Amino acid sequence: MTADEPVRRLDVDALRRQVDEWFTREALAQLLPETGQAEAVALDWMAAAGKRWRPFLAACAYRALVEADGEGLDEGLRRAAVAVECFHKASLIHDDIEDGDDVRYGDKTLHARYGVPIALNVGDLLLGEGYRLLAQIDAPAAVKEQLFAVAAAGHRDLCVGQGRELAWMAGPGALTVESVLEIFEKKTAPAFEVALRFGAILAGADDVVARVLADYSRALGVAYQIRDDIEDYYGWGDGEGLDVMRPSVLMAMAHGLGDARQRAILEKTWGDGADGPTTQEDIQAVLARMRIDRPALNLMESYKSRAIGALAGLRNSNLKSLLRRVISKIFGDFELMGCCDDHPTGHDRGGRAG
Fold first, then answer.
1. Any idea what DSSP says for residue 240?
2. What is the DSSP letter of 337?
3. What residues have CB less than 8 Å from 8, skipping those under 6 apart?
4. Furthest-apart CA pair in the chain: how many Å?
5. Helix axes 249-257 and 260-270, enclosed angle (nearest 10)
6. N or C terminus of the chain: which is more exposed, having fewer CB within 10 Å?
7. In this structure, are residues 226 and 300 in contact, taking their beta carbons and an 8 Å threshold?
8. pTM for this entry
9. What gap in Å lies between CA 339 and CA 44, rounded to an integer?
């Protein structure tokens, strides 16, 4: 497609419905065999709540790049999209264990329900299932090689990012905003990039598209993680507000912008507690007085703009248009909440799905 050709207005909602149909338990059972307890638990976990952003992104990239009309999606894309979700759901299992989280999607995490050994095994099983699905795609060897390379690189980056977070949690201290964003980029962006690259590879995209999608994914992933931080601050997530013992852009901003007294309160949170514990209420009060949600929201918006700016390198108008709309789709519900109009007074334990 050239810049002079008209842009096809793709029905994002219809595409989303098609992707959602792949994740009913019945549809998943066609691809993920259920012959024992581990497989059954994995299947239930895959079918559980979630927004399926990553499979949706894979479908978006593919549909925008494939010129053929019609609403059908390639069976190979379906396997790649389910593989992306296998990888993502496996990472959530492992992340919940490492972080000691007992609630996700408003329900018990897998290890809280079945114990750590079973949960670890199911996470490992889903990684294997993801690679098995990629191997089953009817595509030339060169295409499969690209898929495997992208998946492996994504796994490595995610683990490096998680490793940095775990290292900080073992010896917490003041972090700069830049350090937190580096962790976000490693932990969250790879899954978005893997999803988009899968769709693009199956559609036959070139290296130019790959580079643009990498830049877009990095910015989108950081913006998405900042949003999670703000949601936690307002008590919209699964936990009891902002978790101050994990790298947080709001905490980093508050430490960088605060006065000596405010910094001392934050630093006591990360110290040995010799002067007495800092409560969640103390932290929330400092952040609220600083109205720290406002610069955090501005930072999120800057990364959304950076993601949109990355699309300037695309020659394909369909993909450029669709990925701009994807940003609005992902952040639309959040923006409708008017997050900076009020300040948190309590915690809403409504489930957050990722």
1. S
2. T
3. 318
4. 67
5. 140
6. N
7. yes
8. 0.86
9. 33
For every residue of 302-329, which 3-state class applies, written as one string?
HHHHHHHHHHHHCCCHHHHHHHHHHHHH
The pair phi, psi for residue 246, each rounded to 5°, is: -130, 155
Phi, psi at residue 294, to the nearest 5°? -70, -55
Report H helices in the chain. Answer: 12-21, 25-29, 37-47, 53-65, 75-99, 110-114, 116-135, 141-170, 177-187, 189-202, 207-233, 249-257, 260-270, 280-290, 293-310, 317-336
Report how far residue 264's alpha carbon sits from residue 78's, in angstroms, rounded to the nearest whole number.
Answer: 52
**What does the alpha-carbon distance between residue 219 and residue 305 come to, in Å, rounded to a whole number?**
8
Residue where the block lists tokens 């775990």: 166
* Model confidence at 97: pLDDT above 50: yes
pLDDT tens readout for residues 261-293: 999 888 888 874 445 557 778 888 899 999 999
User: CA-based angle 148:326:158, to the nearest 5?
Assistant: 35
Extract the tokens encoding 34.
């259920």
**pLDDT per position as a tens digit, 38-93:** 999 999 999 997 889 999 999 999 999 986 544 556 899 999 999 999 999 999 99
Task: Give me the domains of the chain, ranges plus CATH numbers.
Answer: 1-138 (1.10.600.10), 171-185+205-315 (1.10.600.10)
pLDDT over 50 at 347, yes or no: no
CA distance 42 to 46: 6
Tell me what the mean pLDDT of segment 18-35 comes to.
Answer: 94
Measure the CA–CA gap between 145 and 164, rounded to whole angstroms. 29
